[in-house]
Amino acid sequence: WSQFPESRRRIVQLCHPDWRGVRTVAYAFRAPVVECDDLDSWGESLVEAMGAASIDLAVIQGWPPGARSFAVRASRRGIAVKCVLHSSPAQHGAEAGEAAAVDEILALATRGVLQGVGMAKSGVSAAFQAAGFAVDHVPNRVPVLPEFEKKDLGDGLHIGVFAEPFWRKNLPTQLLAAGLMGGSTIHVMRKPGNEYLSGLNMVEHGELPWGDFLALQGSVDVNLYVTLSECHPSTPQESYLAGVPCLISRVSSVFESDPVLWNMTSTDRPDNPEAIAGAAMSLLENRDLAVRRAREWMAEADAAAATLWETFTGR
Predict the structure, then answer these.
(1) How many other β-carbons are positioned within 10 Å of the β-carbon of residue 274?
(2) Which of 51, 123, 250, 282 has the most crowded CB, counting CB atoms within 10 A?
C-alpha cells in the first residue's frame, strides 16, 4: 500500500484468498490488496499496521470470516471501513449464510461502523435504497490479464465449462448442452457427481492457479458460463480478453447495453440444454465480431466502473 502518493486517499482492500472471483475483481480495482482467510486471526495487529502506514480507508471485498470484528477495531482506530458485496437476492433466498452476512453488514452501516456499502450487481443497490438503506452501485472493473501461452488441446471442438458444481452455476445443464455440440471435448474444473453425465467426453483439470486457468480458458474454442444467478461476472470477460467467445445467461448487466452483442453472447433459457447448445453454436459462427464488440464494451464499462469506484472510495 506504499504505492500510492500521499496526496491521494490511502486505500487497502481485504479479500479471502480462496474466493477466486472476488479476489480477481479486488485486484482489478488497482488498490493494494491484503488476502486473509480469517480477519480474526490477524486481529489488532493488522489494524495497528494499517494505522502506522497512514491507511485511512479499508474496503472489504465480500465478507470473509472475522470481517465484523475487523470493522469494529478499524473504526475505533479511526480507519474508515467500507464493504463491497458480490451476492444477489437470489442467493439470499437459498443460502442462509449469505443472507445473514447482508443483514450484519447493513446493521453495521446503520450503526456507523461501516462508512459505506456497495453492491456489484446492477439494480440491487436501488432496491436496497428503496428499502431504506444507503447502498451504492459499485460494478466490478475489467480483470487485468497477465501474459500467458495458449495450450495445444488437440483436434476437434473444445468447450470450456469451468464453473463450480454449485447450484447457481448450473453445471449439469451446461454439460448436457456441450454434449449436444457434436463430438466435442468438454473441459471442466471439477466433474459434478451426476452419473448420467458419465458418457460425456470430459477432461477434469482441478482447481488451477489463476494464470494456468487463464491459459486453459483461452485455449478452448468456446466457453459456457450460463449460470442461474450472477452479480457482475469476470470469467466471461476474461474469456473475451483472451480471444475466446463465451456464452452467458441474461442474469447480469454484462454486455446488456449493446443489444447486438447481448443477443450474440447470451441466452434467456439457462435451464434448456438444447437452447444453450444452439446459442453457443451461433456464437461460434460470429466469434470474431463477438470478441471485437465485447472488448469495445469492456473498455467503456471499465472506465465507468473506475469512476464509480473513485466516487465510492473518495467520499
Answers:
(1) 11
(2) 250
Residue 210 CA to residue 191 CA, distance in Å, equals 19
Q: What is the DSSP letter of 254?
A: T
| Torsion-angle region of 183 (φ positive above 0: left; ψ -120 to 50: alpha; else: beta) | left
**By three-state DSSP, how is residue 20 classified?**
helix
Edge-first strand order for the sheet with 116-119 is 33-35, 11-15, 57-61, 80-85, 116-119, 136-137
Q: Dihedrals φ, ψ of 12, to 5°? A: -130, 135
278: Cα separation from own chain's centroid? 26
pLDDT tens digits for 18-73?
Answer: 999 999 999 999 999 999 999 998 878 999 999 999 999 999 999 999 999 999 99
d(C-alpha 290, C-alpha 246), whole Å: 9
Residue 277: all three cell numbers together? 447448445
pTM metric for this prediction:
0.93
- Say which residue the cell 450487481 belongs to: 121
Q: E strand or H helix at 137, and its extent?
A: strand 136-137
What residues pair up with 118 in beta bridges, in sequence order?
84, 136
* Cell digits of residue 209: 492457479
| φ/ψ of residue 212, rounded to 5 | -70, -40
Nearest to 234 by CA among 142, 119, 138, 118: 142
204 three-class SS: strand
Sign of CA dihedral 140, 145, 151, 155: positive
Max Cα-Cα span within the chain: 61
Q: How far is CA 253 from CA 38, 74, 249, in A?
A: 31, 34, 10
Contact assessment for residue 150 and residue 310, using Cβ atoms and an 8 Å cutoff: no
